[in-house]
Amino acid sequence: MAEITIKLIENKNQWEDFLQKHEEANFLQSWYWGEFHLHLGKEIQRTGFYENNKLVGVMLSVIESAKRAKYLTVPGGPIIDWGNSNLIKTVFLEIKNISIKNKCIFARIRPQLIESESTKHVFLQNGCVKSPMHLTADLTSQLDISKNDEALLAAMRKATRYEIRKAEKLGIRVTKSKDEKDIRKFYDLQIETAKRQHFVPFSYKFFSEQFKVFFDVSKALLFTATFNNKILAQAFIIFYGNEAVYHYGVSTEDGRKYPGAYLLQWEAIKEAKKRGIKKYNFWGVAPIDVKNHRFSGVSLFKRGFGGDDIQYLTAQDLVINSPKYIINFVIESIRKKVRKV
Length: 341
What we know:
There is one protein chain. The protein has eleven helices and 14 strands. By secondary structure, the chain is α+β, with helices and mostly antiparallel strands. Helix 3 (85-101) links the parallel strand 4 and strand 5. The termini are far apart. The relative contact order is 0.16. The mean pLDDT is 94.
């Protein structure tokens, strides 16, 4: 059995080159997501796993400081060969070591693995428990955009296709921007949307730093739908690897009267196709059988474009400090119930 060695990776090209060779790689494990968290003042670690001096896995981990405790997160990763038992064992030991070193009470991992009994077993076998709260979107709606435009439109829900055509006839305009000054308006609309849909908004710095990092490398665009000089909807789309991700969206009261959001998504899909991307990820959706989920309405909108639901393994927690973790578990369980997520 080959020995697995661990090294920190400080070379951006080495990190990104590895990710580009792996279909499951995503922006949450990208070099740029790490830079974004550094800009927020957080500590991160980029870990490389080597077998016979060959890089066989990478893991971006982020240290989060909450009022009740510090904890480690591994969003959308690690990116490894999940059939290599020796590598898996080493990765979990390293997650534990990083957590202990940084005085974290637990590590929260949401791997880029389709949920199944076998993937659940891997984490159970390595001492994890199901997290009471999500880390990133695990149930997503994803659309294969390798087909031509006519085929994509034909596969949509009839009402969705109608709204796109209606928006085009009305003369609704969709623009694309990389201007950081436009982020302030997006943030303001997020506050408005949060009040209407009852969710906790992100800070301005959270948006501005994230946009800056991805815009600077031409991996993101801000789409805006307008009618009669009034904003109807905006969306922040990340283009990374083989997928485009509808990461954040906001809307206005006028946007509820006119179908700007539908045309906006269609234009974002066409932009992704121009870039040679094969998959459009509408990001998180509510479970179909949960009627009181606060995202049920927007989930119906997303699913109308004809994508398939993809269920990744939900966030898993590797417990480091049991007494403190139990307190955290209870608090998060209550929050999840109150927020209906």
